[in-house]
Amino acid sequence: MTENSLGPLVTVVTPSYNQGRFIEETILSVLNQDYPNIEYIVIDGGSSDNTIEILRRYNKLLTWISEPDRGQSHAINKGFRMANGEILCWLNSDDTFVPGAISKVVECFVKDPGTSMVYGLVNIVSEAGELTEQPTRNDPFDLWSVVYFSQIIYQPAAFFLKEAIVETGYLDENLHWCMDWDLWVRLGMRYRLTNSNHIFSNIRMYRTTKTSTGGLRRIQEIVKVMRRYSHCSLAFGITRAGLGGLHTFLMYRLPHLYMLLKEIIIYVKNRSLNKFYDNFHGVYSDGWLGRKARFMFPMHADASAVKFSLSFRPELCTRKGRVTAIINGKRFKEFLIPPTTTYELLLPYDRNFQKPTEVELIFTRYLPPDEQCRKRACKLDELSLVASSRSAIPVGGTGIRDKTD
To answer: Any idea what the Cα angle at residue 182 is, between residues 179 and 184, rounded to 5°?
Structure first.
């Protein structure tokens, strides 16, 4: 971060089009922040409602332009290219910051100078601004989860360094629903992203938002992005995207039916779908690996191998076992695990591969299911990419606390 008595400059970009009923609340939530060094840019797409009248009231406090654009992603990119800040974010014209959010974000960057993005929690509010939900779970960044299950990173609560987004290539302007998700993947492939449990923003969810009206086109775009970065089958992508689309459709297009089914949906989600997701991934936040464990590693030009240091419970060490390694969707090799409590596995890493490297480990010996229905195989004590010099490269984005040599 640049040394500055006011702190690093933070640029907030708001894309806008005919959101006059909400935009003043959005503007005030930025201007009323207690952080002293904020640049605010509004990119309006040529609104025909009262948006321009509202923007003129704040001429001296923000920068704004109003002209036709090629969609939301194009508008946001225009704002990013105009930005002078070291830290960037975008806040849609119907969302708001909570008081003190920017100060807390800057504090996170200062405390962790190695991170390129900080993402926090949000309040979910109704069209009238009433609190409807307050998420409490904000997992560490996990590239595999982001690609395959769209690990929730709330866009209004995500802040990133300008140098990172410039090097990554800004938003994909061909995407209309998933441009934020696509950006998180591209950033996560190259940089360290850090989660915060602070609430930064209020996100407004209602019947006519772009997300709730996307329908089949939104599902098709989700599958497109998922397959862009992974080896997922078309069937898996459609199923995963379709479940999310059905939930959104019920919530905002058939709200009365959703309210009748809400408790059932929440129960199924918490008791069944979340367990399926966790066990399908097989990489748990407490360091355990399941019978099948799936990883995705960021691209790194200096890496030549992936090193796993594993430890097994004594009751599993009475017999030999095997672990099968699948790399980028192809069976690589089966390894014999001797009856020992520790084992080191070294797998090749293709630095020239055009997608993140995927690794799946399948173990033949594992513990009976625990109270969380997990068939645990071993603990992951150490995970690192190994450079040609045999030095360890820290690995981020696996959803657990990674260790290095």
So the answer is: 110
pLDDT digits (tens, 9 = 90+) for 6-58: 899 999 999 999 999 999 999 999 999 999 999 999 999 999 999 999 999 99
User: Within a 10 A sphere around the Cβ of 30, how many other Cβ atoms?
Assistant: 22
Which amino acid, residue 312? F
Cβ(13)–Cβ(88) under 8 Å?
yes
List helix spans (H) across 33-160: 51-57, 72-82, 101-111, 143-149
Contacts of 41 (CB under 8 A, 6+ apart): 11, 12, 13, 14, 62, 63, 64, 79, 82, 83
- For the CA atoms of 40, 45, 46, 50, the dihedral, rounded to the nearest 10 degrees, stands at -60
Q: What band does 319 get if pLDDT is binned at 50, 70 and 90? A: confident
Rounded Cα distance, 120 and 139, in Å: 10
3-class SS letters over 279-332: HHHCECCCCEEECEEEEEECCCCCEEEEEEEEECCHHHCCCCEEEEEEECCEEE
The SS3 of residue 59 is coil
Which residue has tokens 């894309």?
15
Ordered by where they begin, the domains of the chain are: 10-205 (3.90.550.10), 207-281 (no CATH), 288-394 (2.60.120)
CA distance 127 to 149: 27
Q: Which amino acid is at 6?
A: L
The secondary structure element, H or E, covering residue 194 is strand 193-204
- 3-class DSSP state of 96: strand
Task: Please name the residue ranges forming H helices in 159-233.
Answer: 162-168, 179-188, 215-229
CB–CB of 73/8 below 8 Å? no
Q: Which residue has the tokens 């009751």?
A: 315
- How far apart, in whole angstroms, are the C-alpha atoms of residue 17 and residue 23? 10
**pLDDT tens digits along 217-258:** 777 888 888 888 877 665 555 555 556 666 666 666 667 776
